[in-house]
């Protein structure tokens, strides 16, 4: 068992100091990595997270302090401090109100000590318990690891791998390959709705698949999961190697290295991989990622979706499973039905997966390799924000949140452009001005026509062209509003001389004449 804040406060020496929780913050069940004392204002610069920091109350009221209580509390939270413990005995006998307010605003756990106990005694007592628990825990992990290695040393198939794991933990076990197909199961059937853990199995060059284990008798913590993964993955890879195809799909779904826009070299590599995978250069795509609460309960629905989508002539799906995440793309071989129709078909397929146990994230339609790779940057960015099972979220819907959360303005605008209007629209002054006119007039078509000096049919022709270029219909109120906002930001950024990444970093935006 790890030592938590609550456990530390129940320690014999701590109890003598009469601890009182002033602000609970993120909760008293949070683990404590170490207890120590340091009253420097910039102590956060020397922390690695999980510490319980003990200081005197007078340290919060010194006249020469350069930081406010709010700045100090925020620095501790940003550093991952488990709790701030303040002695309130001499001079400062009550928690300063500004510190209380700062802790509440930042989510910092704040504890007051009403009796004096030497800080060295507090630190030594709890830290000894932490070391003791750590040694005991490591012994348990080592014992489990040795038993697992021994059991897997003579297996002759993936069914035997599942059997060894089920026997060791006394749980139900399912092993899935990188295509999301059930490869083996042991330990009896899973029960509907029961808690499980999903462990990613990764080989050195590419994903192997995933392992799901029920949690009836015990729960595998992060360290035990890592140990299981490191031992099982190399053995499972001998029986589940999906070949270069899996590696190429995984590489494409990782997105560009900078997390925003593919370079020319990345685009060339990605195009070669798509060709090798059998996707013609004329394909259109929609990138997606699915996060599962349980693979056992969720993958059947995905298999059904893929079968139905691929039943239509010229449609295909490529995807790869790694742990609890499946990422890939839906595609069509031609544009005969139009981008808007293809986008709607993809959304219908993905929205059908939005059950309680699956979190669906999708990008906008991609007409070429660069747009597909860039699309995965947005998908992965949204996916990292945490799972919201049962929801279907598009990167367009999350684009504004990403914009305001980015500190660097150039990066914020670059990201917004890539995930909304794209560089093709940005490089078309006629289309960009048209979208800005719609924004200026609250998408009133009559007002936009008057501002641009064009006829209504000309306006609709331009809007239809935008729809055909990026797959967002001007009748879609949510995504179209995001598109207009992005166009206005891009136009202002361009006029201000903002740099953009469009094949070459740091190029300024330049438009030539264009008519329609």
TrEMBL record:
Taxonomy of the source species: Bacteria, Bacillati, Actinomycetota, Actinomycetes, Bifidobacteriales
Q: Which Pfam families match?
A: HTH_30 (PF13556), PucR (PF07905)
| Protein name (record) | PucR family transcriptional regulator
In this chain, the stretch annotated as Disordered covers 497-516
Checking InterPro entries in the record gives: CdaR-like_regulators (IPR051448), PucR_C-HTH_dom (IPR025736), PucR_C-HTH_sf (IPR042070), PucR_dom (IPR012914)
Tell me the ranges covered by the Purine catabolism PurC-like domain, including all copies: 19-130
Can you give the residue ranges of the PucR C-terminal helix-turn-helix domain? 431-488
